[in-house]
Amino acid sequence: MTFATQMLVTHPGTLDVDTDALSRCIDECFSCAQACTACADACVAEESVADLRQCIFLCLNCADLCETTGRIISRTAKFDRGLARAMLQACAATCKFCGAECKHHGEMGMAHCEVCAEACKRCEEACQALLALL
Amino acid sequence: MTFATQMLVTHPGTLDVDTDALSRCIDECFSCAQACTACADACVAEESVADLRQCIFLCLNCADLCETTGRIISRTAKFDRGLARAMLQACAATCKFCGAECKHHGEMGMAHCEVCAEACKRCEEACQALLALL
Amino acid sequence: MTFATQMLVTHPGTLDVDTDALSRCIDECFSCAQACTACADACVAEESVADLRQCIFLCLNCADLCETTGRIISRTAKFDRGLARAMLQACAATCKFCGAECKHHGEMGMAHCEVCAEACKRCEEACQALLALL
Amino acid sequence: MTFATQMLVTHPGTLDVDTDALSRCIDECFSCAQACTACADACVAEESVADLRQCIFLCLNCADLCETTGRIISRTAKFDRGLARAMLQACAATCKFCGAECKHHGEMGMAHCEVCAEACKRCEEACQALLALL
Fold it and tell me: What's A103's domain CATH number?
């Protein structure tokens, strides 16, 4: 069990949302925030930085969005489904765009973009899976 | 391999810091940020919230500190060892205080505090292990 | 001119959004993030903390949401209107709920809640004003 | 009075730190976080992005550090002077480096770097002024 799962099952609240889907989404949000932070840094360091601009812009927004989404859905005491849905939709959409851009650069040989694309894809899927339950 | 490890090994930079220690510290920082965010929420929801004030204050600071430390040490292109050391020291110290407070409440029956105490302890240890290598 | 305004007018991009409305919204987002962070801290410190739970929950979410919205709309190089709209709508809605809760406690004598209610109201208005232009 | 000042004077706590120095530092931290976020975005958008790498790296770290410092010193209920000192020192040092790099590019014609240099300088000074009182 990850800490996110353990925190959910020990929380005094009574949120009626599937614990597996919620904890997976929390974990993927934080993982994706980290991957996007590192990918933006790696892209700026590349010789071909001028070709990676779009990837950098998307990664910086995606990192902030994933982090805040991860925080908001970690707060289950007074879970606001409307806010959660809005954040998960924005997060999934941004992960989709960012992941597509990263995948493109990954296929051109940027290995860190390939890793980040995978993190984005998993986060997008976890957001969609949680959205389907809210 | 976690995404943090994969991002480190695919980064174009040449940072001379042990990848295992660094990626473990990054992962523990993000995990602890999540656990502290959830623990603060759970503490506010407890009937005994008035007795958990110190725990809430510490968790909120610890969450922000862990997150920013995790971001800063994820940026390895121009790794500033002085800044990394300062952040890791502040993060380890805060995790120690927060973990001790959480452990105390864990022993009084607050199960989420017990989980959070473990996350803080692991983050403190990972910060200290990385500090020893910088 | 605030720094946000100066940053907008010196940015190399050519975003076609009214600078006054955008910079005002950026500034209000950061101000509201600060006020909500301080209000949550103040509420936890109050003797009547048990009656302020809802206010604390809302302030913590509102702080994170305002901050990330402020960051995302500060990045004007590749401004994504769809993402900006989604964030501004979520931010305005959260500021509205948080401001209403704070206003209620402000009327009961919590002076910091009254200040925070004003910060939320101004942020909500700035988000709505910017939304109307996107 | 800024919201930061109003929040300080209405807070139920009894922190014995000069309100003017503290509120100025809080405001400069949030302003600098915003300016650095915008400057990184502007630098990535510049044709000469390859020459602005160091500026981008510094701005991204500085934005996160300023934001977390601003949040931590906004929480005055259980103000930890040791933690505040550590954060203010790290923040002042990072603002100094980032401001110097931005000033250099400002002199080469990057107007947004010139604005950001001024935000960094004011934040560095506000951190030092507050440090002198702790």
Answer: 1.20.1270.360
User: Is B67 in Cβ contact with A10 (below 8 Å)?
Assistant: no
Altogether, the residues listed in chain B come to a count of 134
The pLDDT mean for chain A works out to: 98
C50–B45: do the CB atoms touch at under 8 Å? no
Q: Cα separation of D28 and A33, whole Å?
A: 26
Q: What is the pLDDT of residue C1?
A: 92
Is residue B8 domain-resident? no
How far apart CA A75 and CA A87 sit, in angstroms, is 13
Cβ density class C97-118: b for 16+ within 10 Å, e for less: bbbebbbebbeeebbbbbbbbb
SS3 category, B80: coil
The model's pLDDT over D86-114, given as tens digits with 9 standing for 90+, comes to: 999 999 999 999 999 999 999 999 999 99
Quote the number of domains for chain B.
1
CA distance D97 to chain C (A): 19
Q: Does A26 touch chain B (CB under 8 A)?
A: yes
Tell me whether residue A110 is in a domain. Answer: yes
Q: Is 0.90 surpassed by the pTM of this model?
A: yes
Q: Is C16 on the interface with A (CB under 8 A)?
A: no
- Summary count for chain D: helices (H), strands (E): 5, 0
pLDDT, average across residues D71-99: 98
CB atoms within 10 A of CB A132: 10
* Residue C79 contacts A where some CB pair is shorter than 8 Å: no
Within a domain: B10: no
User: Is C116's CB within 8 Å of D7's CB?
Assistant: yes
Q: B21-51 burial by CB neighbour count: b if 16+ within 10 A, else e? A: bbbbbbbbbbbbbbbbbbbbbbbbbbeebee
Task: For A70-109, write each residue's pLDDT tens digit.
Answer: 999 999 999 999 999 999 999 999 999 999 999 999 999 9
pLDDT, tens digit (0-9, with 9 covering 90-100), for C78-124 = 999 999 999 999 999 999 999 999 999 999 999 999 999 999 999 99
Distance, CA of B70 to chain centre: 8
Mean pLDDT of B8-24: 96
Q: Is A75 left (phi over 0), alpha (psi -120 to 50) or beta?
A: beta
Alpha helix stretches (DSSP H) within B16-80: 19-45, 53-74
Q: How far apart are CA A39 and CA A63, in angstroms?
A: 10
Is C53 within 8 Å of B60 when comparing Cβ atoms?
A: no
Per-residue pLDDT at B76: 98
User: Which range marks the domain in which residue D33 is found?
Assistant: 18-131
Any CB–CB contact under 8 A between A3 and chain B?
yes
Decide if D14 touches C, using CB distance below 8 A.
no
B11 within a domain of the structure (yes/no): no
pLDDT of residue D126: 98
